[in-house]
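Hello, quick one for you while I still have it in my head. A protein chain has come my way and I'm curious about its shape. I'm sending you its amino acid sequence along with the backbone structure tokens. I'd be grateful if you could look everything over and explain what you see. Here's the protein in full, and shout if anything looks odd to you:
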Amino acid sequence: MDFDFGVLPVLVPVVLGAIFLVGGARQIRRNRWLVRHGGRAHGIVVAQDSRWSSSNDGSGGSYHHAPVIEFVAEDGRTHRAKSEISKTHTSFIPGRCVLVHYDRADPAKIFLPGHDGGPAVIFTLIGAVVLTIGLGALWAFWRGMTADDLMDNGVLFGAVFLCVGGSVLAIGVAGILATLRIKTGPRSRGVVIGETTSTGPQGMTRHHAMVRWTAPTGEVLEAPSGRGRLIRRIPVGTEITVRCHPRDPHRILLAGDWPELASFAFLLFGGLFSVVGGVITWAVLHA
């Protein structure tokens, strides 16, 4: 029986979806294992491992940052470990106290809640959607429809728009909701006691006010603001309102800190692509 090479374009989303799904699921499993069976400690972000990632044509790019954490393990030894996840935007900036789950046998393997978990979930969801689209196209191919037919009637075109748009939309929504959760968290009055810096996606230095405040529990805390400023740095000694994450009091935003513009851009373009993909798919299925 001769192999029908016409099935190759249909197999592409099946293979890609399976790779994303398996890779994301393995990362989620690894993170859960560290949470359940690994050691636990509070550490300090001491640096960011920043690397430039160029676009395919070399005309642009951005910096991706992986936080470097210093923590004391259960055996009393001090370790430094770098997150496996690099991001263009991260609130894990130098000076912030964070929770670390680590492998007791190899403390260099860590999991940072609030930083490392999201990408694995997104990869898994994207993989599941792409795999579903690919399996649907493969089923149609077995029913006698060719890859050209699938492209001509717009089913794959609409599905791709839905997949890309939905993924981008999810990133934008997640970013905005994460900020709003902090902005609606416990409120305190604090004072700026210093400053730390981080590097933005294009290499610009961002200045984060280091704030000391008294939590509702009576505990005196210090942490840098999660939102850096390029200009209008906050002077030392300034009294300011502090909002904390309900489950992580060292994750803070200050008065005037709102979601990044990038989150709104993801929301806008993701929503636009999703609507276009949905309209195309609906029109094809009801033609």
Observations:
- The first helix runs from residue 8 to 37.
- The chain has a mean pLDDT of 86.
- The longest strand covers residues 39-54.
